[in-house]
Amino acid sequence: MDSEPQPAPDSERPGRVGFTGRVAALVALPVAAVATIGMFVLIAPSSTGTTPNNGAASTWRGTPSTGSPGSSAPPGTNLPTTVDGVCSGLVAQLPQQVHDRTRRPSQGDPARTAAWGDPPITLGCGVAGPSAPADAQVWLLNGVCWFSPDGALWATVDRAVPVTVTLTGVSTAPGQWVIELSAPITATVPPATNAPTGCRQ
Question: In what order do the strands lie in the sheet with 153-156?
Answer without folding.
Answer: 97-98, 101-104, 113-116, 121-125, 163-167, 153-156, 144-147, 139-141
